[in-house]
Amino acid sequence: MASDAQIVVRPGGPDDVAAVLALLDGATRWLVAQGRTAQWGSEPHSTDPRRVAQARRWAAGGGLHLAERAGKPVGALVVGEAMPYVPPAAEPELYINLLVTDRAHAGSGIGSRLLAYAEVIARERGLGLLRVDCYAGDDRALVRYYERHGFVATEPFIVELSGRGWPGQLLERRLTGSGQPTVSSR
User: Fold this and answer.
1) 10 Å Cβ neighbour count for 66?
2) Which domains does the chain have, with CATH numbers?
């Protein structure tokens, strides 16, 4: 597989809404194929007006960043304010609202590269805390993914969706020292 050195991270914008929705649709197809529909359901994000509007807000809000390989979007990161369903941080933070990668490139370091990019953004802003929330159901595989990247699970939560509880986990990562990961951007 290609190394993450071939991944370029760039700021996203309104022209990238279709790319973000395509990445989300691909991830949903993969989850469905794995029998994991409790995380995002089984319908494409691109056909859900609420999800399309969310992608447009992300693209217009200044927190969208795309990972590209050979000019093709292979991942997306959105950073911004904490979600309303999680407890507020006791200090200034950078919150990861979305991390999604192209499943065709699974295992090639795209997610790791985007998380490193989020760390760079936080450090540039003088912030010492990164937080993210994720789906905590099934086998908690997503929670373990973030833990492998230095995040610590803090508070579990439940979001009521269509009469069922969606299990979530809040995680945080403290940024210490002055070293910054090297992230290629343009």
Assistant:
1) 22
2) 4-174 (3.40.630.30)
